[in-house]
Amino acid sequence: MPTASEAKMRIVKDSLGSLKIEDDCYFGAQTERARRNFHVSLPRDRMPIPLIYTLALIKEAAAIRNCQFGKISSRKCAAIIQACREIREHNFDDQFPLSVWQTGSGTQTNMNVNEVIAGRATEIIFGSKDNTEDDVHPNDDVNCGQSSNDIFPTAMNVCVAVETATNVIPGLEFLRDELQKKSQSFMNAIKIGRTHLQDAVPMTVGQELSAFVDQINCSIASIKHSLKSVCKLAVGGTAVGTGLNCSRGFDFALCEQINELLKERFLKEKFTVELCFLPAENKFAALASHDALLQLSGSFNCVATVLLKLASDFALLSSGPDCGLGEYLLPSNEPGSSIMPGKINPTQCESMNMVSLQLMGNHFTVTMAASQGQLQLNVYKPLIVHNMLHSCQLISDSVRNFTEHCVRGLQINHNQLERNVQHSLMLVTALNPRIGYDKSAEIAKYAREKRITLREAVLQTNVITAEEFDHLVRPEQMAFPMKRPPKDENGLSDSQHKP
């Protein structure tokens, strides 16, 4: 393979002059300048490729509508469409080398996409990237009616919305559904609840898991609500929000075309969320701020808190397992120690906890970046979309891993649950209506001091009879107090018995 010095070179030009680049590059002078000027944290922090594909989709939509508006020829339009589709089919990934750490408006990446599309479209028409007669121009043709200031934030919103709808929400629904199955399966498995990490009254494992089901449902609802604002696009605002050099109605036309291009994908893959993009009511706000993405990031932050608690509780309830709580039995996915044979660790829980903290960090970064909308343009756009897309991938990947390798294989230690229920002194709460709070507290204290069971303490102090105790202290009823209590042989329920 020839070195850079040996490779065939060609000359490209922009408003600052001429540059030499390798002949097989489809991008032009502006991309090359940015590549040289912003070599920061590469290749790790290249501009996310989903954003590139989204920009290509938007450029295709723009070409179609600009052709209809008479701004570009049908010949150029067809070539631009083909080039955009080839980009989205992963044929030109190596032509987008720029770092996230560039201009805060994303101009370099917008021009990178414009130049690659223009170069490939010119090649499609003329057989060469360098035709100068009537080549496809990156600014005049591909970027017609657009500015980086409105198209880059448009791409940010579309890309994040699509990633959220196609990966984040289905991933959370997958986790929720599996937790729901486990909740139903363990709904009658009685255990001791805990508050302040101390013993509380009986409940069931199913009830415990149902809390997470509801929390995840609330998170999904919050995300869907936030998506409504994310679907309002900056397109048509051009440089500062006034719409200079943009055809009247172009914003609505472009949104309509974006929806059409996305519709086929959404119908094909049967996603549960329908996205409908519309122009933002106020283009000035759409350029100067990113409140909608910040709100969505806040929803992701709420997801992080749910996932952190879920994973932490699973790890705690599986602790031991021989000398800890040991109520949950997690799948044995891999050896846990290089020195302690037979040790198994809650690795999926630990992975999820780290992901949750990273999500919180991403949200803090997005919060700070969104607050920097000085005057007419927020200039932290690449940072915002970089973190938002990172959060999308983290949530999607981690919840699927946790569901497949932890939740699905969750079992419970029935013996440990029963042992804990039998030894819990908080069962005394069921005696409150019969003997009162103070007397119940005395009984619990007596049992703890004597290190005996609650039943033994009641019998030793002659507070009530064994029959009364067995009738009142029934953990399975304590776990479902709102259900209709069973009648005794006299046709009376517990609540109808007089002290």
Notes on the structure:
- There is one protein chain.
- The protein has 499 residues and is mainly α.
- The protein contains 18 helices and 8 strands.
- It has helices at residues 29-37, 49-68, 74-88, 107-126, 138-142, 148-185, 205-230, 250-269, 283-288, 291-317, 347-370, 381-407, 414-423, 432-435, 437-450, 454-461, 466-472, 475-478, and strands at 9-14, 17-22, 190-195, 198-204, 232-233, 278-279, 328-329, 411-412.
- The strands form 4 sheets. It has a two-stranded antiparallel sheet. A two-stranded antiparallel ribbon has the order 3-4. Strands 5-6 form a two-stranded parallel ribbon.
- Strand 5, helix 8 and strand 6 (278-279) form a beta-alpha-beta unit.
- The radius of gyration is 31 Å and the shape is elongated.
- The termini are far apart.
- Residues 485-499 have low confidence and may be disordered.
Report how far apart the termini are. Answer: 94 Å
**How many alpha or pi helices?**
18
What is the CATH first-level class name of the largest domain? Mainly Alpha
Radius of gyration from CA coordinates = 31 Å
The overall strand count is 8
CATH H-level superfamily title of the largest domain: Fumarase/aspartase (Central domain)
Question: What is the H/E order?
Answer: EEHHHHHHEEHEHEHHEHHEHHHHHH
Poorly predicted regions: 485-499
Q: What profile does the largest beta sheet have?
A: 2 strands, antiparallel
Task: Output mean pLDDT.
Answer: 92
CATH architecture of the largest domain: Up-down Bundle
* Class inferred from helices and paired strands: mainly alpha
Biggest sheet: strands side by side, in what order? 1-2
CATH topology of the largest domain: Fumarase C, Chain A, domain 2
Taken together, the total number of domains comes to 3
The best one-word shape is elongated
